[in-house]
Amino acid sequence: MKRVCVIALLAAMHLPAVERPRNNSYVTAYDNVLPQVADGGGWVTRITLVNMDSVPATFNLWFYADPDGSPWNVELKDQTGAQSMWTFTIPVGGALFLETLGTAAQTSQGWAYLDSPSYWVSGMATFKAIWMPTNDAEAVVQFASEIDNHYFMPFENRFGYVTSMAIVNPYPDRNANVTLQFRDPNAGIIRTDSLVLAPLEHRAFSTVVKYPETDGKNGVIEFQVTGAGGQYVGASAMALLFSQRGTFSTVPTVAILPVQF
After folding, report:
1. 71 has pLDDT over 80
2. Going by CATH, does the domain composed of 150-255 fall within 2.60.290.11?
């Protein structure tokens, strides 16, 4: 049950994403969102960040709690205290390695936002399951874009596999209206649904539990995100694919087009 539910179980305010300068920058400059962070109950999240800039990079890393995006005080190994906003500096060409404690009996979940004045700081997270009966299991996911509003995600719910996903609205000042369409490999529609994500809201669920029509099937999920009154908004998503043996891997999203401003 734990393996299926890490995403199903697996606001300090930052500057609105729309206020960032975006001259001739492609989507990779906005890969600032980690749509899922899980800690405790046998789960640890490691975060690795790299400074690719030519100057030292000082930035904030914000943690938000599921589901409403309230400040989440997270403890990190080799750091003092529990905070919802951590400030770090990475030297030129350097890297930062962070890890949640993972000692709590119950799993807590949420998401993280990288608030950096430099476009050249980004990285990845590693989800580590330490409840496996023999060996630990891990999967790596890159930071996601905060501005993608049309993208696809494969899913596999056959042969004992389960796809669990997380989606978040990283914008602090507007709703994100998300349409999801599940399709089979021949583009036949399995299920269509609509979600309204409030500012900073995070949702995580097993696709089999939330959408039982997908049980025993595979295909692709199409996501389309719109804002009210023509406001621009994106929603960041990721997924993990669990096997019946408890191992898991990352399921990436694929944007339909690179967004340019």
Report:
1. yes
2. yes
